[in-house]
Write a structure and sequence with these properties.
Enzyme class: transferase
CATH superfamily of the largest domain: Spore Coat Polysaccharide Biosynthesis Protein SpsA, Chain A
Number of strands: 12
CATH class of the largest domain: Alpha Beta
Order of helices and strands: HHEHEHEHEEHEEEEEHHEHEHHH
Structural class: alpha/beta
Radius of gyration: 24 Å
Strand order of the largest sheet: 3-2-1-4-10-6-11
Number of helices: 12
Shape: globular
Membrane topology: Single-pass type II membrane protein
Pfam family, one: Glyco_transf_43
Pathway: Protein modification; protein glycosylation
Cofactor: Mn(2+)
Length: about 350
């Protein structure tokens, strides 16, 4: 509504003299934004027509509450927005769905399913324990698999087409990766960068066949691959309802606990030019240091917990930036509410 209001004001002078220059510049910018939005809608309509025949990619992502959660999920969803025929299954490690994640998904423009599944207390990492000590995201990934098998809308045989990928919320993904995995027949595999204290880990391919694995830690594992390094046919997962991740799997064996119930090594389908290209990276966001925040909190001057909604609240409380309608519009555009 803010955008419509501004466009209706074209040709009218603002009653705030000091804002005249900003007013004119903003109107010009809005014309450009309107043109851009029209182009986006045209591309989206064209994209829907062109990709209707594509097998869908179901991406299962476990997530948990932390300072960088929204930043991580925002980056990830903007990657997913560029992938046609993708359905995001986001599973919170929480007793209930949080408003932060719910609001993010509602405004994302993605096809999605929002679930929650709390990790059992005995399987949670305790303060000071290293990340590798216990497998993480087990219950959440299994909940995503349960939804695919039990609750996913079904329309007959064609509804079993598709591929399932397990994408953590802190990794970095090339768009080409999703093109590579879409044609998966059983289980497809590829290299993963910056993992296992190595530049990359990867299947070793000879003559188009996986014959081994380039890894520095326990290469004798049944499937020494990273969670980001494989995708599974939806049909295969539906045919093997017992296949799941085992929470009691030994360190580094979580991926194997699922894959052993689906395929053998010689059935793996190498992608990314016979596993010679890295298209996904096991990145991590640096943990924020909040020493000054802690000091201010102790003084009773910490950050406003409503900051996620501060601009929306300002509008409702008539605290927007001045009387000029365009200033109100800037608030709306900033929060994505226009």
């Amino acid at each position: 509504m803010g955008l419509l209001y501004a466009l209706m004001q074209l040709g009218q002078r603002c009653d705030c003299t000091e804002h005249e220059l900003l007013y004119e510049r903003t109107i010009s910018g809005l014309r450009g934004e309107l043109h851009t939005l029209q182009q986006i809608m045209q591309r989206k309509e064209s994209k829907q027509q062109d990709t209707g025949h594509l097998p869908p990619i179901y991406v299962i992502t476990p997530t948990y509450a932390r300072l960088v959660q929204k930043a991580e999920l925002t980056r990830l969803l903007h990657t997913f927005l560029l992938v046609p025929a993708l359905h995001w299954i986001l599973v919170e490690d929480a007793p209930h769905k949080t408003s932060l994640v719910s609001n993010l998904l509602k405004s994302s423009g993605l096809s999605y399913t929002h679930l929650n599944m709390l990790t059992a207390p005995q399987r949670k990492l305790q303060e000071g324990e290293p990340n590798w000590l216990k497998p993480r995201g087990v219950e959440q990934r299994n909940e995503g698999l349960r939804w695919l098998r039990e609750d996913r809308p079904s329309t007959g045989g064609a509804s079993e087409q598709g591929v399932v990928y397990f994408a953590d919320d802190d990794n970095t993904y090339s768009l080409q990766l999703f093109q590579e995995m879409r044609s998966t027949q059983k289980v497809s595999v590829w290299p993963v960068g910056l993992v296992g204290a190595m530049k990359y880990e990867s299947p070793v391919v000879q003559g188009g066949q996986v014959v081994g694995f380039h890894t520095g830690w326990r290469p004798s594992r049944p499937f020494p691959v990273d969670m980001a390094g494989f995708a599974v046919s939806l049909r295969l997962l539906l045919e093997r309802p017992e296949a799941r991740f085992h929470g009691d799997a030994a360190q580094g064996f979580l991926e194997s606990s699922l894959l052993q119930g689906l395929v053998t090594v010689d059935e793996l389908e190498p992608r990314a030019d016979n596993c010679t290209k890295v298209l996904v990276w096991h990145t991590r966001t640096e943990k924020p240091k909040l020493k000054r925040e802690d000091v201010l909190q102790a003084q009773g001057q910490g950050s406003d917990p409503r900051v996620e909604n501060v601009f929306t609240l300002a509008r409702h409380q008539d605290l927007s930036w001045g009387r000029c309608g365009l200033m109100w519009l800037c608030v709306e555009l900033t929060t994505g509410q226009a």
